[in-house]
Amino acid sequence: MTADKPTPTRTKLSLTDELAVERTRLANERTLLAYIRSSLYFSIAGLTLNSFFQLELGWLLELAFWLVAIGILISGIIRYRRVAKKLNISAFAQKRWHLLMEEEV
């Protein structure tokens, strides 16, 4: 005996679903820009602290801030690409879903 797989009900995606995906894409881009902004703040803070206070080991403090800035930037880019990849897979699945619905009609 073979068990029949349940077939999902095929309903046309509404405009609100499509807009939700687009809002998620825009939120992902805003998040990437926030990571870039934070990275710039840390790099500027490192330069400012070193030049303003003129510490004996100021270069070490500046280096630490720059490493944090680079880490933030890299983690932001990685996160952006992961979410964008998931959204592209989701968009592909939605297009495929539309094609399946058109074949039935």
TrEMBL record:
The chain crosses the membrane at residues 32-53, 59-78. Keywords: Membrane, Transmembrane, Transmembrane helix. The keyword Lyase does not apply. Pfam families: DUF202. The keyword Membrane applies. It is found in: Endomembrane system. InterPro entries: DUF202. This is DUF202 domain-containing protein. It comes from the Bacteria.
